[in-house]
Amino acid sequence: MKTQSFILTLLSLTVALLVGSCSQNEKKSVINPIKFQTCTLDRSFDGDSTMPSLTLSLKMEYPISFSDANILKQIQLSVIQSVTGGTINDSATITPEYEMEKMASNMINDHRQRISEIKKNPQLEDGDCNSSTYYKTSQEVLFNQDGLLTIQTTDSSFYGGSQGIKFLYFNNFDLSTGKDLNYNDLFIEDSEDIIGSFIVQKLMDQFEVTNAKQLDEIGFIDIEHSLPIDKFYLEKSGITFVYNPEDIAISHLGVIKVFLPYEMVSFLMKEDSPIAKYAD
Q1: Whole-angstrom Cα distance, residue 93 to residue 88?
Q2: Could you tell me the pTM of the whole model?
């Protein structure tokens, strides 16, 4: 009995040491010291019997505080442009409120002009321009730690038809430089084909098919030969590539996301890649 007790004690100590070792080696995440202000704007054009209404809703996650003023300004500009889509002429005097007001005014004017042009079409039928429309842009902070910041911008709109449409866009900032990271900042040269093959395999798993040809039958568009990898977002466990309607498939399939864990693609990362630390 003493021998059995000794063995059990020894095993318990061994497990404890292993757990302790794992805990010591585990890297703790650090939240970035950057603060945000949520800015919103709602505007509407009521329309009349000849002009359908337009509803606008804008939401921006605007960074207001960071240790490096130059990097903060750089990120602020990118965040505003992700919502408004416009070119900012004087970065020294911009405010999110002014830029959103300007965007709303431009969109209402564009709406009136677009409907006026449509009404000049001799093929126009009654009811073609009567649908109320909406446009909504909102931002969300997806990831904010260890020197990386990911912000998602969602554009939703309805301009008639059976349903609205949604698009996703991403900014992945390296807070040590303020740079909005792209694919080439993360992965080595000529890695696109290998990453693409991983994505295709993941898509086959998601849609429960056994070959890429079956993906074509579902509604994908020649993904084996042209697979864009420019839209993605980062998190601690991996990278997610995102495809908006008609990027690689018919719009009916909506937004498509493909997650690749870092351990799967670590051999393709650049040594100085900001995500390499997660693959160690």
Answers
A1: 10
A2: 0.84
